[in-house]
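Objective 1b: paired records.
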Amino acid sequence: MEVSPSPTPDLDRTVMAAVTASETRGDPPFACAVEVSRCCVSDESSDSGSGSAFPSAELASILVSNLCFSHNTPFMWKLLEQAMANRLVYPLQVLALLTSRVIPNRRAQPEAYRLFLELIRRYSLSFSVVEAGYCRRRIMKYIEGAMQLSRTYQVEEIDFGTSVVLFVFSTITTLIDCALEDYGLPFASQSRVVNEGSQSSDLDARGKHRDHLKESNAFMALEALENISSEKKIQILLHLVYLNMPGPFNNLLQRLRFIEAHKLSTNSLAAVNHLLEKFFFNIQKAMNLEYLPNKRSILGYLLNTGSMNSPPSLLIGAGKGGCWIIFDIFMENSMERKTFCPGAVFEKLTELITTLQIINQASWQETFQALWLSALRLVQRGREPMIGPIPHLDSRMCMLLAIVPLSIAPLVKEESKTSIAGGNGILSKKQSLVACLQSLRQFSSLLSPPLAMVDITNNAATKAASFVRNFKAGSGNLGMMSSNYSSVKAVGNLLHLVVEACITRDLIDTSAYFWPGYVLPSVVTKDLDLILIQDSPWLSFMQGAPLTGPLQIALMATPATSIKELEKLNLLALNGTKEERTAASKILCGASLTRGWNIQECVVRIVVKLLSPPLLSDSPVSGDTSCYLPHMHMLSAVLSCLAHVDVIHILSLHGLVSEVAAALMPLCEAFGTMPPPPSYQSSNVDEVTVYSVFSFAFLFLIRLYKFYGPAQELLVSGRGGPVRPETTLDCLLLMRNNHVRNNEGHVANDTYSVHELPCHSVYIDSFPKLRNWYFQNQACVASVISGLCKSKPCCQVANLILNMIFRKINKVVVPVSTSMSSGAGSASTMTSSSRSESSGSVSDDSCQRPPLLPAWDMLEAIPFVLEAFLTACAYGQLSSRDLTTGLRNLVDFFPASVATITSYFSAEITRGVWKSVGMNGTEWPSPAEALYTFESEIKEVFAHVGVNIQNSYPRGTPPTLPLPLAALGSLTITFNMDKKSDYTRDVVGEALENCAAGCSWLSMLIIGSLWTQKARKWHDFAIYVATCAPFIHMKDPVAQLMHSCFKAFLGPASRDGSSLTSVRGVVGLLGQCASNNSDLHPGLLFVRTCHTFQDPHFCSDVIFKLVIEWSGKLADEQICGSPTQLKFGRVSLAATICIVRQVAIIGASLLCVAGRALLVQILFEETVPTSLLSQHEIRPGQVESISSMLQGYAISYLMFFSTAIVWGIGANSAGCKFWSSEGRARMISSHLDFIARVLEGRIVLGCDPSMWKAHVLCFVGLLVRFAPAWVMSAKLDTLRKISSGLRIWHEFDLALSLLKLGGMGAIEAVVESLF
């Protein structure tokens, strides 16, 4: 505890002698104050160490110490007031000293308490900041000694500003406690000793007056509280406590809740209820204090323009829903087959919902409506999906009916736990959701179900109709139709599925079934066959029916409806007979997984948990992998079902990719060390073998990351990778282990306890065989095969594989161990002589018997086999047909070899060391039949989206491909186009796309033509793939596509009638319904191809320039036709602001979907500073100045929206889990430092000054208004410099609001700005 300082005794005597003499002479208080000040000056002048300065801390201490209470006279009070008014003493110090003396004696000295309250009212705000120096230090010591602020509020180092804030806050809480105690309701937490004074039995006039004074003092204390808390400066100080000291502020709120609970039941408080209500309102206003710019300024219009309330937004630019385009782009990007989410999509979507609701200043009903409309458009765009290995309708329905409800659930439940809106006309989130769902019925075109969903929607509508009918009939079973009643068959749409999803997750209740027009029965019949349809196969299963025949088929086609059904299936899959395990696994991975939307988050976790079955713990051998054998059939069934594209994508949407990878690694390690049985001849999808289970698990694992990564991508873009860095196995494990660590100590929800996933970390070093292959594969990608270590066992295995593959084509294989001695280019690897002339190192038995070796041994040797293949083919010793046949034989025998084949060929293609071969139809398959038609169709697609590709395949020139690419392409067209081949075809197909695109886009034309000739139904998919190729190395198409996206979203810039009829906004950018390739929208092509962009700096620069160009052009169009000076009319200015927001939001959306955090970082650190520093061509005229100003606003919005989309606006948002929050803090801090240096004059800009000023005002305003958590990352000195610059521009409120967000260290700067 710090001891309060005290003045010297001599000064005390001198001052009091002067006071006594002046009072004796009858001098007025002012004259006495002058005389007293002379005493202080003469005393301080004699002390060389202190110097002469006012206000005097010693004088204040002397006056207060004598006033309380040895010289408690009216003259002394008047003298003290004069000294405060003339700044002889510091008012804050006087009030602090009086507080510590008067409050404990307020009942014994009611007159002094009354005068103290009056001084509080007069001088709580009428003081100025003392300059730093001796006076300030002395005053702070007196305040601290009197009130012990640092000890009370546990502040280690207290500065002057913090003293002021804590004094005001302490005074308010003290007055509350005094008032409560005086009204007979002492607050439980206070421990203040009060001097009651002497109690006289005489009720004389003076005694009655003092009693009345005590009662009126309590009322006056509340008046003083209401009076000072209504001042804006006091509210700012309270807001600082609210931001930086939540503990003390919560104590204040506890007092308010205590008063609220007792004010109506206590007569004394009921009489002052009007004061309490005003005081409560002032405290609430202080809590919600935010920066509100002047609405008459352009900045005020910019920051206060709502999302859907502006009439001009209906007429120009992207239209009414343009500000929600991020929802559509986010969802469409989530459907991209090469996009694996680092976490659960619904977590990121929840953060995005909150972010857009805040920055668009929209109601929750508007926000939820925009969200559901985006999800419905997503489904409509995929209602007629193309055939091919891409996510189809099930993934889109998962987004609509599982991901979106899961993203809304935390918002609704969080509100129910904290507070419920009521009485203020604001709908709660749950009420807003109900109102939103009711309003969706007006969007009938979006609610039309795809053909595959018609029966499901009708069943949902029928369920609602049955519920309503049974409710009206008083039936106890509301959910099922009774056979005594007519069966109601209703026609449904997607709204019925949405409502069912919300009811299941307790977001709304079953009163939704009674909404007007929700149930429209179309058929009423007594046909008992329709009643039997209502019986679910799950009912039979739960009643004990065996999983055989028709029941198993029905269960696979019908989603489960409850957790209990899943639990029973899970037990059978783990503990049943072999047949039951297989059947239960297939059922779990059937419709319950793909279309069990209402409980899909449970199903996916159960399925993933099946990949880690409980193992026998009594194995006699440590590390024995045979413990997996009892579960082999179950694992085979699960893995074969999970191989489909939609299933993998659903797992990705639920954020389980890293969990799946961790579960697959031990399976690969175990089954990869087991040899197949002696009878094994070739892989059969329907046959469960060690090779088949390993192949399923291994190929599933490598599909989760880019295992074949071409070596060239390590050198592109100068930052170690493409615009959007690819996921690696190391990255997957890191994400998974971080998730485990973050969830340690987390109590699981009882609902999900059945499917809690393993909570231990997984490292690749725990799986030595997998680790060896992983590093060998990386070595194959990074260097030529000759650089690998070749062990003797590996060479022997390679020889066995070579002989096995070519025994059917009458080829003799020179042993790999021999060919190695002559290097990778040996031409004597294979010959065409008869089998009887084979080398003696390989026996006849080994030629006839397949190599029954563990899978890892096979994978280790396959690269050398492939090198032998290509070398022999390149030197003409192996025909192309035999090469393709040999590769296909290898895949048939050992499906997992597809991974090594793909990886090896991908690396060889990018090295460019192999000669090209002619695709002439003789040696290699010819694409001539479809090549030129295929090319023309692709160019039509590009022309439709505004992209001009100059390169064409030369007419009359035979098509050629590099040898590895020709071999890989020829292999792909040998695969069947059925679902059984998905797990191998999709692996090699995706890698082939990247390889072909890595050569030139003309190579992709050849591959696409071959695919089209193989399977005509894959024609649209081949076009889909080929359109991505030109964007890898050609920058012009990228820039053209981005420009088309802006044009499609914003519509024509002209103000003529065409802007009212043109297709723009979300529909113009992405479309609203299914479209074929010839009618492709620019936004869809951008989402499809942005992962191929290779230069992040170029992408950032192009988007930035487009934002500048379009904001200036559209602003000029709006200003055109009016006087050269901008008219500050509401309509014209609001229209211009809408354009600025729309341009920035489409730019930010494209930037984030293309490169996520990387492109936003480049935008902040390089693109924007470079542009501001560069010299711009300035055209004379006021319109140019206004255009530059609006461009400055557009830059700020682009930076703000981009950061908000990636990281969110909160301090601990979901985006910070996926992308390090340190990146956001570094970017914001760096740009604020840049602004501060420019404002200081240390950096000279080249841009228009109006652009710079507009950018600074808007960027800082956006931070203060919508993202205060971001400001905490800035340096305090930076905030001070920016605040000083803003005050020079007369933006005092903005400067003060910025400083308020600087934390405890900025409190002093805020106080200095206020007083």
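Objective 1b, second protein:
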Amino acid sequence: MDSNYLEGVSQETIETFSRLREPASWLLSLPSVGAANAQVVSSNLWAIHTILTTMPDPELHLTTKLIAYIQHTLNHVLLLCQNFMLPEKRFDFLVDAWASCLELLLRLPDGYAFIMGPNWQYDQMIFNVLFRAIDGLPIKLTQQQQQQQQQQSKAKDTPKDRMPDETRLGALKCIILALPLDTTAPGILEHDQGYGSSVQDHEEPLDDFGRARVPADDKVRGYLLEARSQPVLAQMIVVLLDVAKEASLVALRRVALLGVLKLLKCLETPERIAPWIPGISAGLTKAMLERGLKESHVVLTTALDTWTFMVARVLGSIGSSRQPLQDSSVTGAGVSESLMAMFKEQGDQSSRSTSRTPEGYGSAAWIKKTDHGLSTLFKEISKLRAHSHWDVRRHFAEMAFRILSDCQGALVRKTSGSATSSVPGFLLETLIGCTQDDYNDVSLPAKAHLGSLAEEYASQELADVGKQIVRERLAALSRILHGANEAVKQDAIRVAQGLVLFLGRQMECIVNQQTLAIYLQPWIQVLTIEQLDQHNMDERRGILGVIASGSSAFLPGSEEERWHTWVMERKGSGRKFGFPRRIHLHLREQLTSNAFLEFLRQLGSTTEIDTWSMELSSRLQDAARAVRENQGWYGASDVSTVLMMNQLLVGASGIGLATLGDFALQDSSIRKRKDKGSCKASRQRKSQRHVRRAARGILDEYLVALVECSQLSLEARTRQELQERSRSAESAELNSRSKKAILARMFGMDEDEGEELTFEVTGPVEYDHNTDVMLRCSLLEGIASIAVILGGTEFEVELVRVLYILLEHLGDQDSALIRDAAEVALEHVTFVCQYDTVGDLIQANYDYVIQQISQRIAFLSTNPKTPQVLWALIHVVGSPAVTMLEDSVTEIFEALDHWKDQEDEVCEGLLKSLCEIVKVMAGSDGTKSKGAKAGVSGADPDLARNATTALSQTELSKEVESFAKEYRLLTMGVDDGEDEALREKLDSMTPEQIKDYFMERVKEAKDDEERLFGEREDTYKVDDAEGAEDDENISFGDLRARMPKQAEALKPEPLTKHQALCLRILTKAGYFLTATSPRLRISALEIIQGSIVVLKDRPQDLNPVIHGFWPAIVGRVLRRSELEVFFVSLRAIEVITTLAENCSDFLGRHLLGDVWPFIVKALRTWSPSTDNGAKGAITQKSLASVIGSGQGHRTPRQGKTHTQGKVFTREHRLQMTTLISISKIVRHIRIPVQEIWTMLLLAKEMVLDRDGRLHKDVRVAAAEVIRSMAVAGHGDSVYVVLEEAVRGSVGDGREEDADEEEKYGLQTCFDILAFMETHAL
């Protein structure tokens, strides 16, 4: 492999030379280069490039002689082309090939040493050639063109003839490779902490690792740093920045910025870099802003890396022991001014020096000037922080952290002016804004950097800058939040939250007792709630379910994680765990409102909670005092006050807070936190004790506010109704007076006659129900928050006061939102006190509630909400509540007797409580008729079982087979041994054998029964014959002794406690069947319906009471002339259905004469008209004539196309309820055949529905009525009617022409007939 033909020369070198000889010799023999041979020259140069790229291990085998040979060839071509300075010798394809060959040589250590080291003049010539290739040649203008250009603008650049960007890119790579390496200057990527990926999607990396370092690097650097080489260095910077600004190719712009970065590394010391800061900063700004947010992310990230290295390198050494080098500053002064003149539109004129000699590096004047210039440029590029690519935002965070951590000594000297416009303010806001980014690749490292600044690099100067920014941001926050742009609102909130997170406990210097008034009222206005939304409550997870922005999950083992598990285990049970969603007036989007609430929680964790609690509590007390004095009602600001207090308390306890993440980047920070760990834990424990003490004080205020809201709202509504009546009476009196005055003028009477009436009307009370609901929901949410803060041990002490109030609002009759909020609050208390359900919580502490109920039920005039507590207690606890209230039932009855004539809220609450007791005893949470539901789900369960598809006659069900086995075992009476053998025999039997065996056993059983019956008759005949023979000789005493003795009357078993209580409640409920309030009548009917189920085994007690109520029940069925009375009628029909199921004997005596005519009349109205005048023909009547004007209207042909949606019209509900009631009545009560025929014909027409007016669910219910008739023993009639309907349709040939709805009706008839045949009906 390494056999040498010549000493020191490898075989690969010889082969490469042989391949290079032909193209190189041809190029060296050229006398000139022109348009005729330029393509051939380019081809030979590309051939050389191909040979070099395919050469194995060029660093080893490409010797210095070969490099010299290739360089000589390139120089000859360059000479023939006159350094590419003439337009006629300037071919872009030739320059591209030449630059590619030069790039290969510069990438090799020996190549770089051979070309760049020995002769600086030659190196300058190479740089000049490459510069011209990149920048282009000036175009020679005619005299007329020169005059036009002078007239247009003097500042306009001279036009140049530039090559394509691909050719310029090759030349630019050669320039960068020609620059010397610097291993002492730190790289920008050395501070990458490993968050996210820093790999950029450029085609080829151009970094310092392309070759090994050689002594020629020091020589070239020395030449560049000489004073006579400053023009060359300036020319490099000008060309590179100009290319980075105007080039169209993205790779070209990025490589140009890499060249600037490499030049800065060549300068090494901050003293040499400092003079170039103004010009390079202005050029970088111009390059970044040329395309704005449309600029490629690879260009922007490279520019940010360059800027970060320059600023951190220069400003990071200020404050060290090194003295500034004045001569270095002087050497670059002129070039710096020229660069600033070139990019003067990017800098402030006042920031530039008017003298040729700048101030010394590191002096106060230099720092002030540099800070002003950088702040101006940073302000211009601030819009790029919103770039769509995440890597740009990450580089902004890296830049902010590097400069803030390395340059604090220089940056903090600038303290005058606005903090947000200074360099530290811009960088701090940039870093904080990145902590709120949606991408974890941006937010996680930004949080880590912010945590490092707060812990490891903490300085009072930087904290002072943060305080100034916070003051300005908080003062402007309310103005921004009143705007229309939600994105701007979210950004402002996130920046403010990040600043609060950065400052921590130092926020107490900003928000305290003296400054609280500045921020409090504007923020309360911002939190104004427009309404509450109770929908989608399953998506909300309550107080502990709040996850701070940027957090992906709960901390393992935390209280939040335990709550999440607790909720997920009970999901789907119908329980609610999240409070109603708030819709704010100014924070329209949910993201905006959540961000502001999270900001308040963060603020509560970093400030003194007593400062907030005292001020907010006093505001709430002032509002309550104004309401008590009849000066108005609670306003939206009071609701916002409670909401703000809730969020501050939750934040102060450490719930739902954002964190800085894991900022343990270095071992030193870990050691520092270990030293501070014990002190920090002690402060946290002390702070939590302080928060719990404040929470208990707020709890007292909330409970008082809830009680006063409950009482004062009723009084305010009463006063408002009285005032409206007074105003109405006053208006009527004024109208009467005007009429009298007119009559007096007409008849000449005195207008002043008569006594004037006066009305004393107090000031209007602006009661707002929506505000009342929102305030109470917020107070209930606050109680839940306090329960979480205090914990189970401390909050159990407060249950004495809290439980009664929560149950009172759980039974609220006016608002479902209040009920939902109270239920969620009870769920939180249940979780905190470690109970499984709310019922368990109430049972364990029921004595607190029962005692208060007993004390207040005797004074319902001052405690009108007590019945709500009763209802909620029974509803939540269930059956055990009946036992708890055994001693209080008498008090409830006495109160009901006292309030029954008033029919107000108290009376309704008491009756609902008794109704709930009956429901609990009946074994249901709420007895609602299934017929009121739409669809097949409302069908009777017995009919649903009968409607199942019959099994084939050849297949025997498992139930029959099992029964046959058990029957055989019982009849044969086998023991264990025989039982096992019999099982083996039965297992081998076929279904047919089992069927035959079963039928034989049935026949044997019938024969045995007939035989025994015959023997019994024979015995009776013998006894009668013997008795007949002795009748003539028997005495009267013997005859009396032979007579059967009269059985003693059986004493009925005594009523159970529940039955006795139910009977008492049933007796009380009858009074309210004739009440004027529909709610009272519905509650009374619900009590009757539940009592029928409870007392169905005691007909001797139930039937007399129902008999007394029967006229009122029938009256409720027949009267439906009003909208609200319609629901009373539905409930009455459900009562009749319950009677049919449980008291068929009673209903059978009253059905035909009282209810059945109405049912038939209603069905005649709903069913289509028959074509023939058969028996039971139906006539169409208006629905209003039967069920009143409030029954709605029929919609044409709903049919199967509407079966998927629920129907909630009153007519549909009435149809379903009535048909299901008929199904149960027919099955349980014997009805005459004539009435059955009438009903059967009506039901058949509803099934067929030839007019297409009925909903499919109604047709299904009508089919269930027909099935019930067949099951009840009227199978012959059903068969005749359905067979005629089916045969008529098939015989007339209408089946083929029928539409989908008619086919559905016929198929239903076929199914009913199949059902009858299967069950032998």
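Strands lie at 137-138, 160-161, 529-533, 581-584. The two ends are 104 Å apart (CA to CA).
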